[in-house]
TrEMBL record:
Pfam family, one: NMT1
Role of this protein: Part of a binding-protein-dependent transport system for aliphatic sulfonates. Putative binding protein.
Keywords: Signal, Transport
Chain ranges passing through the membrane: none
Source organism (scientific name): Acinetobacter gerneri DSM 14967 = CIP 107464 = MTCC 9824
Protein name: Putative aliphatic sulfonates-binding protein
Domain of life: Bacteria
Signal peptide: 1-20
Gene3D superfamilies: Periplasmic binding protein-like II
Domain SsuA/THI5-like: 145-282
Family classification: Belongs to the bacterial solute-binding protein SsuA/TauA family.
Record keyword Signal present: yes
Record's keyword annotation contains Transport: yes
Amino acid sequence: MSQFPHKKTLLTTFIGLAFAGVMTGCDSKNADKTASTTDAKTVRVAIGTQDTTINCATGGLLIRELNLLDKYLPKDGQYKNVKYDIQWKNFTSGAPLTSEMVADRLDIGAMADFPAVNNLVAFQKAGKQSLFLNPLSGSTTGSGNAIVVPKDSKINSIAELKGQTISVPFASTAHGLLLRVVKEQGWTLDKDIKIIAQAPEVAGPALKSNKIAAHADFVPFGELFAYQGIARKIYDGSQAKAPTFHGSIVSKDYAEKHPEVVKAYLQATIEADQLIQKEPEKYSQLIADKTGIPAEVVYLFHGPLGLQTRDLTWKPEYRQATQTAVDTLKMLGKNDGKIDVNHFITDQYIKEAFTASHLDYSKSLNNYGKSPLVANDAFTGKPIQTFKHVTQIWVKGEDKVRSYETAEHAFQDLKKIKQAGKQTRVVYSQDFQSDIKLLSNLAWFATDKTGQIQAFLLKNDAEQWAKSHAGKVYDFNAAQQLVK
């Protein structure tokens, strides 16, 4: 069974992504970045995406690839005879996207909470204002950001990193996470721990060659490095209980001039969200085809019970995450801290889009559930009703991921899959304590005195569980042998 089909090094992947993003993000019909918005017959809709930051998919890539925007753009009233000049431009980070927005070459963009605050500051310095329209995808507990170590490292916990060098993309959400972890450990920067700036395309090869002890990063790199077999995740952002998310931003001037266009963009976002929830495998593969990020990694986030939820509403946790970004970036000297996030965040446009899409915003605002798993156990054929032990197998050549209510059912079926000469693309488990989705081949499994199998991200958690429940700890291969 191959856990890592079509393996690529991150450097090769990332260079390919950057080139592909330039070539496909702006096709010939969208090449004019300076189209006039003063012509009454032409309205520019220039959108900056971050395709490889897969959290942004429902606010960019899927809308673009499925041509959803044109479906909702207004075509009556003052827009009756309008010609829309729709432009797309892809970026690998938020900073250059912000520069294009401030220069009035983009109207809408997608980025994480930390870059979004930098966007606000950049607009203010230019005498302008941007608005944070809505979240796209995130975690109220912080899952998505992660800290990884080289695959064969002997380090299994944060405490063991004392005295080591950790790299991180500076001024990112992952940087904020890392600073909180350092504070929680009681460490002093440059004394107990050294933090260096490193972009993911550099960190991947550094991890592979053991040049750094650990790396902290944002979606999807913690999982991508693990999937590629060059790193292991030893800390998930959910352990910090600090919310994080990606969302959509618009120039305030543009929103006030074209509120119906902004609403149309958000309606397209809502449909993209609905589509990926209904067919996560199909659209995970589409995202993979356009970005080079493996569909197996995309599904980790966007599939049912995924690492993060696609949440379009302004939950208090996401408002707090934005304020946390302000406070952390102030500490890093990126702003003066005199920022009122309530003037930056607006729920006006997303509420209007919900209404236009015949959805209940208040109901969604109060919904903290993950994308639900509605499936029959592929081994027993019975509906899955409990989710603490859910295990999933994506068989090579199959369109749908197989789901199982327990690890035991999955491992029994896995033996049959092998006997039939089939290969698996990936196996997923749910962490028994944090309920985050895991790559099973990198998870730890513990039994209790009854022999029931639980999955864990961290070996220490598995060992503690086994010790308190008269059980034992196993790696993925050994755990499979428990099922006869």
